[in-house]
Queue: 2 jobs
Job 1
Amino acid sequence: MGLISRLAASADVPVFPVVGIGGRTAARSLATLGGIRVVDHPRAAVLMLLVGRPTRSLLRPLLAVHDQLSGPRCTVWWRTGRDGGDELVAALPAVEVLPVGDASALRRVFTELVNGARASDPPALDDIETTPWRGVGPYGQGGSGMTGGTPYGRPLVGRAPDPDGLQLDQLPLQVGPFFGPFPPGLVLHLEVQGDVVRHASLGENPFTRWPGDAPLGPLESGVFFDAVAEVAPVAGLELARARHHLRWASDALRLHGLCSPARRLAALAERIAPGDAELVVRIARQLGRSRSLASVMRGVGVVDPERHGLRQGIVARSTGVPEDARLSDPAYRPLGFEPIVHEGGDAWARFRQRLDEAAQALILAERAGERIRAPGPAVEGPRGALAAGAPSPSGQLLGILPELLVDQEWGDALTIVTSLDLDVEEAAHEVPAEASA
Amino acid sequence: MTWSSPLAGVLLVGAVLVAGAFVVVVVDRAWGSIAAHQRVRVAALVAGPARDGALLLLTRPSTTERPDAQAWVLAPALVVAMAAAVVAAVPLSPGIAVADVDDGIVLIGAAFALVMVGVYLHGWSANSPMPLTGGYRFVALALSYEMPLALVLIAAALPAESLSVGAIVASQHDIWNVVRQPLGLPLYLVVGLGLATWGPLNMADGADLAGGTTAEVSGVSRLSWELARRSVLVAVAVVGAAVFLGGWQGPLLPGWLWMAVKTLVLVAVLTGLGHRVARIRLERFVVVAWAVLIPVALVDVFVSGALAL
Amino acid sequence: MSGSGAVDIAFWLAGTGSVVAAWLVFRTDSMVRAAYWLLASFVGVGVVMVLLHARFLGLVLVLMMAGEMTIMAVFMVMFMMNPAGLNPMTMVHQHRASKIAGLVAFVGLAYVGLVADFPDRPADVGEDPTAALGRELLGDSMLIFETAGVTLLATMIGSIAIASKKGRYGSGEDGSEAPALEPVTLAAPADRQAPADRQDGETGS
């Protein structure tokens, strides 16, 4: 046993991140820490890492995720952003607060768990059946007919016509807010037939700010929001844009099964500098030529700027609309900025659009030097123009998501969710609390 | 020494599968480091499988609400057993054959068909949406590749005029099947990726399903499942080396070493594809399988048959 | 063949296992389990055939049944209004009719087994059963097997034509729907009298 626990202690630390308010940036840096492995599902994790401040509507899912860790398990907390949330975190059996971004502290907790120095967390919820049911019939079925009754409180699903004209089962399914492949906080209520999404609607935004709550943030796209009211260096903004798009591309590659190229992009995003323009141009060209990526994304999730009401932003540019707030921004005028557009408006166009804009942002950052942008509205954020009072770009994109998901196979649906680059916290940031309830 | 004695056979097949699975992990991670533009650390690579395995051994197994417990445990066992049956049917060297039966190719086909049952059950018995979807997606994939698999194996048996793997290896004395039937090996490798639910054809355990059939397993069950997938990949490579790359035949080196080298090459090709090619869309693969792979496999059979006459 | 004792043990194990698995098909509470108990039963039969020197037939049986039973499980789950096939349900119904049918079949088979005068033609051990099977399939019995093959192929093409996206009732993308069973939408009885016209009119929905 000694040998096994010694060996196990030197394995990569499997971590399942759960993201609260203001935690997304730190959660993303997790993937680039040495000796840490971010896992897709809590079952595979030893540490549940809470990043940021939890909210009331995140608490119940948080406890459920906690209990899915098989054990030995422990909750660790990276407190990013503003203080608070302690009274919610107290519902977890034990929480270790660790310094943000410190891989060695995570490893210390992991090692203690593996070699038995630290006891595994007890479950947070009672293991009880919500609807105990024993059935009437001899095999535990309902008792009337072959499948009568409502086993375990779950009625047999309703049937609905499928595109081939057959009547097939339609299973209601809630996904999120901590579903690994989704952006943190996204809750979707789906009706699926097999792996085809037949109906989709957005769940409550768990980051919604109730009266009396502390403000949200810091957002991942915070520098762009700040630039509305504050002076900002153009090079800083463009570097942040390039980093944002490369992080997104890393997520997209990971979703499509290319984990190691994804690791490369994630690492590159963390240490990006204006001099990397050439490298990013090369990567963008390389990935843009990939036949397999093209076949996965081409024709999936086509956005129509007219029908979906998208007049500006990166998604609109991927449909051929050359709208960009930087065009009318005096700080960008001497830099020779020209908006990049792609045709098609599908996930593949958005993928290439983001990579090309990452490369363009680095070139702009190089040209900008020490140039300063005066505060003013209509900052072009990584998803679209930000202006005080206007709905956030993420909010707009969230609005068109359910429609795009209808009649998509599961893999395509996930491609669409990822391709829109959603930030659920950003969506809650601008929308008043009454409107989104 | 006779390799067909039960004890020696079990030990040999077990050793091939365990060593093969280890090599698969190491080669796969080496490819991963290269594709991620990271330094290849040999010590960490070699120790990696043991470390992760030890961690899984220490992790508690998890359960879901009302799983089919027996089938859940049996699924990885079934898959490993079928991989073992396949390896047993392939002679590794002129003297080293556990069970080179007359109908070896049919045995391999039957064992690979039962792998499908194992993967499906692994997803189904968890009683949870993501694993279940993974299981069903795998069935759709598997039903599409079964025909090309059967056809390329039959085509390879035609020049040997025998269904025994030993005879197929011997028939490649002058010219390997990879040259004689250029369509065979590429088709077989595509199918092999699907069989092992690997890389671009990882339908059962994909990242879009948060791990698919593995989403609800941990501890020893997870370890045995990962071992099972890798043993299928090893079995695929062993069969590919024997049926298409001339098996143990080659100059200078002893036969078993040639077999090991050729198997390693196929393992490297299969795992390398996983780091280069994105996971395909299932619908597209099904269309390609029925509209392209099966006709191409039929051409392979017809041409091979005509040449063998 | 070395160790005929081991072969005897394997034969009885596979034979009994096959019968027990077949019985469990009806004792289990889920369609997927039932399908795979049936597969286990077939695998037992396959092993028996391998032990009887019909290796090719035994292995092909396993090969085919692994796919067939999976397809059967998937189709049963699809048609039986049971998400994933995990909700418990009874696998037997129409008890009286099935008891009678089972009894009649058993008595009939038992009668044939006990009374029929089976030909006693021990096969030559040296003969290759696979080659003999091939000669039979492409020789004397060719017409039978080809007829069966072509019939099956026609069935397959027919079912694909019905099930395809461009289905019987128009394209699946446009919401293919079966016409109503009640003839309420038809304007005049005269429309129904010419069957040739009706075939054209059917695609109009």
Note: Chain A touches chain B through 52 residues (CB under 8 Å).
Job 2
Amino acid sequence: MEATIQTTITVNGAAVTRAVPARQHLIDFLRETLGLNGSHVGCEHGVCGACTIRVDGEIVRGCLILAVQAHGRKVDTIEGLSDSGEIADLQECFHQHNALQCGFCTPGMLLAAHDLMRTKPRATREEIREYMAGNYCRCTGYHAIVDAIEEALARRGQVARARAGAKT
Amino acid sequence: MNARAELPLHAPGTQVDKGYIGQSVPRPNAKRLLQGRGAFVDDLRFPRLAHVVFFRSPHAHAKVKKLDLTKAARQPGVIACFDGRAVAEYCTPWVAVLGHLKGIKSAAQYAIAIERACWQGEAVAAIVAETREQGEDALAHVVAEWEELPVVTDMEDALSNRYVIHPDLGDNVCFKRELDTGGVDDVFAKADVVVEETYLFGRHTGVCLEPRAILADYNAAEHSLTVYHSTQAPNMMQDIFSRHLGIPEANVRVICKDVGGSYGIKVHVYADEMATAAISVMLRRPVKFIADRLESFLTDIHAREHKATVRLACTRSGEILAFDLDDLTAIGPYSVYPRTSGIEGNQVVNLTGGPYKHQKYRAKMHVVFTNKNLTCQYRAVGHPIAVALTEGIVDLAAAKIGMDPAEFRRRNLIADDAYPYTFPSGIKFEKLSHHKCLDRLLALIDYKGLRAEQAELRKTGVQRGIGLAAMIEVTNPSPAFYGVGGARISAQDGATLRLEPTGMVTVLCSVTEQGQGTEGIFAQIAASALGVTMDKVRVITGDTAVTPYGGGTWASRGAGIGGEAVLQAGRALRSNILDIAAVVLEMDKAELDIVNNEIVNRLSLESKLALAELGRIAYFRPDTLPVKFQAELTVTRHYTPREYGFTFTNGIQASYVEVDPDTGFVKLLKHWCVEDCGTLINPMLVDEQIRGGVVQGIGAALFEECVYDDAGQLLNGTLADYLVPMSGEMPDIVVAHVETPTKQSQLGAKGAGEAGTAGAPGAVMNAINDALVPFGARVTAQPFTPERILKALNKV
């Protein structure tokens, strides 16, 4: 029998405990054990970004981290971020701009874009292209993805300014 | 209150005069994908699901001297191990030839190779296990002994027949074609100007982010097979599973849920996928195969790998007189089933010189076998080759006579009023718009301004280039593409529309969706044809047990063929609905219309009856209708383009680049495409097809190549080593349209999916060479890597 390690991870806000094979990647744990199929496996060697998830607030590649390494940590996936409404504005912009075709890269793309919006709220078009370069999309040619993120940034900027205005 | 449709009732420039046609409506089905709630094959869960992995040849060409699976079979979780002979008991081999490609030949290919592997990565054994990990662990316990055989990797070496890969075939030539209008030598002998150049095209592949995926579920009690498949052509695969596994076609169901990219990669028969289906039959349980990325590089079809020499003759005043082509392409050890690997070369012969009005043309083309992975049809099949070598040699000719390349094209493009037109290769154009597109492009890019900027910057040592590429594109293929050659590949498609009791509309169509937006435009067309709002329409595709029979999605046919079937079914259903309304309302049918989900008085737009009420009466209270009246609220229509072999489209692209002569790096500054796909159903989706296609073409031009060494070993078979375009280095892409609807259909739509890929490599090549003019250097071997550019500059 394969060695397993008792592992507790808070996934999308709920703690789950499982006996996890030591060699299992976090993305396989999420997909195969928990049935969270929204994050996709595109290359399994850390290049394509389709398996991008969030661990303790930082985006990581689910194929480059073992499930046991997530013990005691908070993991968020596209399912959790969708249900909480945290990225609803970004999803809406992607939809309006058709910033996805087959949709396989999209969950990872959204997590990366959301991270960009958090860390670089004033990113230029050039900076968006640079930041998103770790997530491959084979369908769109990226133009619409950049458009969508640009608009989402502008919308969040407006909301932030409106809030700031309301406070003063 | 009179409800009015929110959207314009008349879209200009189309025969479809209502509703959503021409509107950039977001795709309804994108919402589930945005929340990670799609259903790709690997997302499906089945009881007793077994996982298959393959033991693949490490050699490009080798005899299997010994294959011992007994140790592997004893590993934890292993259910069964099979070699080629065992699987061949359940799955017959195939030979991929077509009757209309005269003389094409290939060898029998088995689901799992028997005795001999002919390329690195060809499967020679299958291991089935309870989990994929257990299967992969067991692979290490397969004992194989090999006798290496001579390897043919070079195209010219293959053509020389120094070593023949399949001795029974006599030589390494899979297919050859010659075409001659006559008089070519004479024209070249007398021409003012003759230019000649040789172009090389690297072998590359599709890199669908979702790897190939299949889950086959055999039910022994029914002798039935259900296959969940990441494919573009469910009915084609249904036929093939049936014939090669010996299961009646009616017992085979192919279901195609979300597909994570295809681009032509997923329209072919793959040996390992056939083996997976056979193993499901053998084990009488569901079996799944998901290719990993490394397997994808070794076994997903590759494409291109051409070497083409082209000559052009023209007058001093810039009139093109003739093209002369010699193309050589290598396809690996087998022609790919069932479309064959002869099509790409055949297209290069058909399309070279395609936008221009010369009358003399000669072409020679050879397709040869090699010991590399198989090649076959990938997005834009042959077009990127034909466009690049046509547009490359056209630029060279313009330079030789000292004429601006845009002006040279203007003088030679087929006139917009010259149609219908037969090109010297024999292909027929219904109606193209080369000059409108050229004018539009030159205005869009401010050609004069761009040239002035280029000249100004050149003085400061900044080397920028502008590249143009005019193109024609095959779309909406008739049965002339495959059917006439004996392939059981449908050129027709069907759509069923049903008004539900609630007033909702269900659309079932045989054209499939891989992200292009076909389901979205079918909803637009159905809603427009019926007079309902799009939120009332649900679209179902990709299930052979449910949808009408059809070809699926390939060759830019979804909108033009599937869309026309939806339109015709919609118009017929609308008529049926009005028949019922006329009876219920005791009015004349001609007085009635459907607007915004209601039956209205055609003239006053007064609301008469909601569709939901009509549905209620028709389904639940038909007793209130006249005895001899039967409501028909389900309608099916089919459509096949037949007047022309293909519905050609046209367009032109421009690329603006900056080349760093010290590093050889190319910076893409901007890219433009003006194209004419006829009726624009959803401009946003068309733009996105063009942009995505352009970037795949840019990938071919600058980055992508499957590099093999002399032993037939793939040297860059990981996503870290094989470069694909990333967002950082891609330019913004401006897309504009000219609309020349085809008169063959009511919808008027031509295809748009491949135009971007067809033209981009030629445009980028011409832009790079334009930037290199001050150095007297040219590059002609794709991809144009920094190394190749520096070599052209004599710097390395």
Note: Chain A touches chain B through 56 residues (CB under 8 Å).
